[in-house]
Task: inverse folding
């Protein structure tokens, strides 16, 4: 493995894995050989690409910039190879960055469909609930929920995702079900990644109502907000995908379902200025098709909340959602 292109591929793999031994193993090289070849590349270009310790290696600032520049070259070669084959076959490693909730609930259940269509690529799911650095972590495509920070990344909108307020039946039996947005002031609202503000804005019939809410619990992962709501710790402000299964089974129910809590964008991000990998484009296209909401999907979110008790007036306002509330308190 002495040619320059092979050393560049080794460098890119080492940058993504933060390990010379892992990168070498993927390319059939020993750790000493991989380390020697990286050192030879650094000597050839006259710059230090990695900082090295006894425990890990990490890109230097120069190395991160170099990765972006050579990434476009390697991606262009992959595209040229694919076109030359004339089969449309995708190859190589595709690194996908996203949050834990999105990968568990949306990507993994659909991944077999993509892999049936494209059998050659290797998929690496880089999952955590902070925003990955596309350059230093070598992410080919990242799926981000919510507002995007200013960056050089190229964004492609995939969908709009509704936000919802949800709670467990046990919590609502104990604390009472909110009838109007102002009732939220009497509840603890669990803050998650979908909504971290102490102000909740709801819309109905063209009117916007803002309510300042109290929160005893804030959590940085969507799955944690969902689990907390199931445990009866409060009303969770969540994205629809994070609670869709729980709403379908009745473990959670919508709170104030007639009010619009807004939505958040789902975007696919690619490194700006880099020729996008064909596999990254194909995967974004695949998910965009798969995530189109089915017709009537919102209807299931309006399901009733049977058995919720409340001592607040105005029970008739929620008979459509909570018929048993009215029965419990003498309503129709």
Result:
């Amino acid at each position: 493995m002495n040619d320059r292109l092979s050393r560049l591929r080794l460098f890119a793999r080492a940058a993504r894995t933060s390990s010379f031994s892992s990168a070498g193993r993927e390319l059939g090289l020993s750790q000493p050989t991989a380390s020697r070849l990286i050192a030879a590349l650094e000597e050839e270009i006259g710059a230090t690409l990695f900082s090295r310790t006894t425990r890990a290696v990490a890109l230097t600032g120069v190395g991160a910039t170099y990765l972006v520049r050579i990434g476009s070259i390697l991606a262009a070669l992959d595209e040229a190879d694919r076109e030359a084959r004339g089969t449309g076959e995708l190859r190589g490693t595709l690194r996908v960055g996203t949050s834990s909730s999105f990968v568990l609930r949306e990507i993994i259940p659909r991944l077999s469909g993509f892999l049936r269509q494209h059998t050659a690529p290797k998929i690496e799911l880089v999952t955590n609930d902070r925003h990955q650095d596309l350059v230093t972590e070598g992410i080919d495509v990242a799926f981000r929920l919510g507002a995007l920070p200013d960056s050089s990344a190229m964004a492609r909108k995939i969908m709009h995702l509704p936000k919802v307020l949800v709670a467990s039946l046990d919590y609502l039996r104990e604390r009472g079900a909110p009838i109007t947005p102002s009732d939220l002031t009497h509840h603890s609202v669990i803050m998650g990644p979908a909504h971290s503000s102490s102000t909740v804005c709801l819309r109905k019939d063209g009117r916007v109502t803002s309510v300042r809410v109290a929160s005893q619990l804030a959590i940085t992962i969507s799955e944690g907000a969902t689990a907390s709501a199931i445990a009866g710790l409060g009303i969770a402000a969540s994205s629809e995908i994070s609670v869709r299964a729980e709403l379908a089974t009745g473990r959670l129910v919508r709170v104030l379902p007639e009010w619009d809590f807004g939505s958040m964008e789902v975007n696919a991000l690619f490194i700006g200025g880099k020729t996008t990998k064909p596999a990254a484009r194909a995967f974004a296209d695949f998910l965009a098709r798969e995530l189109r909401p089915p017709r009537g999907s919102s209807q299931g979110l309006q399901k009733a909340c049977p058995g919720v008790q409340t001592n607040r007036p105005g029970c008739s306002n929620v008979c459509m959602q909570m018929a048993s509330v009215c029965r419990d308190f003498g309503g129709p």
Summary: The longest strand covers residues 154-167. The chain has a mean pLDDT of 81. The CA atoms of residues 58 and 275 lie 24 Å apart.
